Amino acid sequence: MPKYYEEKEEEDGRACGGVREDLRQCLLESACVLRENKSPKQCLREGHCKSLQVTFFACKRSMLDTRARFRGRKGY
Asked: How many whole angstroms separate alpha carbon 27 and alpha carbon 42?
C-alpha cells in the first residue's frame, strides 16, 4: 500500500497529490540522493522511482483527458 494512505492527513489538496508525495519521498529516500549526494532531479533523470514517475505522469495526463469526467482520474 502506498505510504500516502498510511496514517497521513491530506495536506496537499491538489490533483495527484498522493502520487506526488510518494514520488517525492521515494526520491528523497533513494540511495542516489543519500549516498551519492545528487539532486532528486538528477536521480529522476537516471531512472530512479520509475514506476511512481509513470503513475504520476498518467495521473496528470488523465486530467487533460475529457473522458476522465466519466472515468475519474488515474492514480490515487
From this structure: 10
Asked whether residue 17 carries a pLDDT value surpassing 70, the answer given is: yes
* CA–CA gap between residue 48 and residue 65 (Å, rounded): 27
**Average pLDDT, integer, range 20-29:** 94
CA distance 34 to 7: 25
Q: Which residues contact 11 (CB under 8 A, 6 or more apart)?
A: 17
Q: 1 falls in which pLDDT band (50, 70, 90)?
A: very low
Task: Judge contact between 24 and 14, C-beta under 8 A.
Answer: no
